[in-house]
């Protein structure tokens, strides 16, 4: 039986990995192993490991990641903790393949542990660009440590090939998020409102804003500008919690103060869970902030996105995604355009650049057949430029 291990450290990557985990669990020839770390294990971030268990996936290992303070040194120590913890887990579980998704700093730790333990890596969502975050460097580093690559779009697959990866190990399979949307059983609006404790009044915004790790203040000035822009309307605002990057504590404090001063209109929820989050997208007028979900899921659902600042710069964008700068005036202008009838019509009919449903099945079909016994990576593939021909 082929053992397929998944490393998940945030609510975001779990939401994308979940359809793959279900596909692996459903196949008798495959054994699912689940390694949980990061903010999943943090009460301050919603203890989202409970969602994994509620979905019916047993957790095989928990790797603590203690970020002692909101600074780069503490994050580096936390990354080292994950490296050490995952190394021990891989020795114990002995998976045939380790699945990694994305570009979090703790993902690089897991990848390093796998390389040293001689466990081959399958990487999802490689080849992408986020020019405003350290994730950019981490993602490409994980690509070079990985054996197989499942890209979410053809331009990303081509970028992986440009990095010297063997073309026969790079596939454009689309984004697993499309599977989540296709299979979604929506939570009724009334149930969502009861969970949130507010009524969703127009214009309603779903806001997620993470630290901008390449900016000096981590995006703190930008979050103040965003909150100023949001305060112009009398509609509802649902804010989800920040990630564990440097600068997250200061941003979270600003969000808590903003929500606390506006009860009944603004609510801050650390984690909605994937089903509630996608369901809520259907009942808001725009998705706002700097999360990849505004580029990945929101266009597929048909809701406008206001993407703020440089954090997602470089990613493929559907026509429904409006990019703006970090001043209150620029954000306000983008919000007004997102609410316009013309742009809402664009969002309603646009197609996602991240493929169609079926990514999970396509990925697991390949994982079930790749040669896991050949632990060494193929040689770097040189690409000849036109000028060299």
Write up this protein.
This protein is α/β, with parallel strands linked by helices and 389 residues long. The chain has 2 domains: 2-181 and 357-388, 3-Layer(aba) Sandwich (Rossmann fold); 187-349, 3-Layer(aba) Sandwich (Rossmann fold), CATH 3.40.50. Helices cover 41% and strands 15% of the residues. The chain has 15 helices and 13 strands. It has helices at 11-25, 49-54, 72-93, 105-116, 135-145, 154-162, 177-182, 189-196, 220-230, 248-260, 274-281, 293-301, 328-339, 341-349, 359-367, and strands at 2-8, 30-37, 61-63, 97-101, 121-124, 148-151, 170-172, 205-208, 237-240, 266-269, 286-289, 305-308, 321-324. The protein has a 7-stranded parallel sheet, sandwiched between helices. The longest helix is centred in the N-terminal third of the chain and has 22 residues, at 72-93. The radius of gyration is 20 Å and the shape is globular.
């Amino acid at each position: 039986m082929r053992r397929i291990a998944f490393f998940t450290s945030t609510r975001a990557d779990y939401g994308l990995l979940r359809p793959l985990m279900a596909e692996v669990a459903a196949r008798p020839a495959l054994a699912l192993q689940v390694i949980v770390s990061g903010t999943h294990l943090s009460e301050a971030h919603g203890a989202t490991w409970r969602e994994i268990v509620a979905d019916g996936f047993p957790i095989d290992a928990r790797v603590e990641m203690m970020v002692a303070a909101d600074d780069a040194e503490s994050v580096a120590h936390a990354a080292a903790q994950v490296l050490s913890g995952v190394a021990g887990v891989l020795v114990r579980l002995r998976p045939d393949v380790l699945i990694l998704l994305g570009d979090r700093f703790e993902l690089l730790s897991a990848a390093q542990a796998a390389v040293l333990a001689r466990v081959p890596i399958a990487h999802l969502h490689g080849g992408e660009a986020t020019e405003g975050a350290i994730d950019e460097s981490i993602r490409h580093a994980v690509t070079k440590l990985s054996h197989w690559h499942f890209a979410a779009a053809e331009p990303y697959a081509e970028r992986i090939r440009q990095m010297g990866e063997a073309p026969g190990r790079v596939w454009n399979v689309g984004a697993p998020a499309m599977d989540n949307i296709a299979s979604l059983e929506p939570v009724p609006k009334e149930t969502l409102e009861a969970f949130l404790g507010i009524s969703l009044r127009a214009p309603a915004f779903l806001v997620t804003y993470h630290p901008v790790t390449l900016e000096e203040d981590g995006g703190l000035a930008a979050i103040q500008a965003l909150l100023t822009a949001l305060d112009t309307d009398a509609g509802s605002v649902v804010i989800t919690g920040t990630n564990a990057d440097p600068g997250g504590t200061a941003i979270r404090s600003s969000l808590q103060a903003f929500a606390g001063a506006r009860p009944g209109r603004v609510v801050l929820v650390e984690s909605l869970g994937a089903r509630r989050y996608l369901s809520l997208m259907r009942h808001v007028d725009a998705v706002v902030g700097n999360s990849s979900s505004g580029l990945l899921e929101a266009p597929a659902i048909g809701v406008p996105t206001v993407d703020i600042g440089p954090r997602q710069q470089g990613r493929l964008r559907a026509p429904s995604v409006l990019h703006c700068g970090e001043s209150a005036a620029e954000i306000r202008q983008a919000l007004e355009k997102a609410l316009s009838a013309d742009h809402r019509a664009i969002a309603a009919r646009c197609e996602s650049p991240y493929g169609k449903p079926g990514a999970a099945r396509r990925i697991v079909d390949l994982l079930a057949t790749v040669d896991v016994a050949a632990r060494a990576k193929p040689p770097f593939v040189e690409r000849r430029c036109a000028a060299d021909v």
